[in-house]
Structures
1.
Amino acid sequence: MVTTGEKPGKGTYQCKSCGQRVVLDDTTDTMPPCPKCEKTEFHKIN
Ligand SMILES: [Zn+2]
């Protein structure tokens, strides 16, 4: 699981709450809160 504020690396992450996908395209990107529901837990899907 990935939470907001971590730097999980490049990839596509899906909000555990609403299913919204968030793409991080740089290893230094910080996981934001979900842009749709503002929850903070995601799992990596790609
Ligand atoms: Zn969400």
2.
Amino acid sequence: MFINWKLREVNLKIVYYGPALSGKTTNIEYIHARTNPELRGELISLKTRGDRTLYFDFMQLELGRIKGLKPKFNLYTVPGQPCYVASRRLVLQGADGVVYVADSQLNRIKANIVALRSLDDNLRALGLSPMDFPLVLQYNKRDLPGIAPIALLRMQLARDGVPQFQSVATEGVGVLETLKAAINMVLSRM
Ligand SMILES: Nc1nc2c(ncn2[C@@H]2O[C@H](COP(=O)(O)OP(=O)(O)OP(=O)(O)O)[C@@H](O)[C@H]2O)c(=O)[nH]1
Ligand SMILES: [Mg+2]
């Protein structure tokens, strides 16, 4: 969180985290396409030739004033491919909340767990406590065949009190609901 008292602006950072190809960039692309252009900035995506996130995606979203302050949300995605571990830690720096995007496919269960553990490790490395860090869980790709039942995903990924959403990011299902939950969580902390 960064407050510019002169402009009465509060900058808050929400990071979309998760295993490779789980749909983090798709979430942010949908948010960008669906929000009022007057309230959001450009979508900046640094991609490889194969459309994979190289460093991060970024967009800024404004909300109306709250108690005289203007909150600005900086939305980032991390690159999910295992080799970009250093980038993930850098992007996570200064985060006020995380949306963890899980891939519902049965063959991605292990990747989901590994990525969630790496999120905890990275938070700890930044001096934060994973257990009470603002987190929203999204179970994405609910449209595909061969997906794990929600109960199984919950058992493996969820923690007490963490808001959870099912989504089909490619169709925008559940995307804005997830974002709203993350925004509310971060604002209530503030
Ligand atoms: N069927 C289906 N495909 C999806 C869904 N969400 C994302 N995808 C597809 O999954 C692929 C990966 O999506 P991305 O959003 O690029 O994934 P990412 O998590 O940003 O991947 P990295 O940047 O490499 O970590 C793309 O082909 C998307 O179109 C979904 O809900 N359903
Ligand atoms: Mg991406």
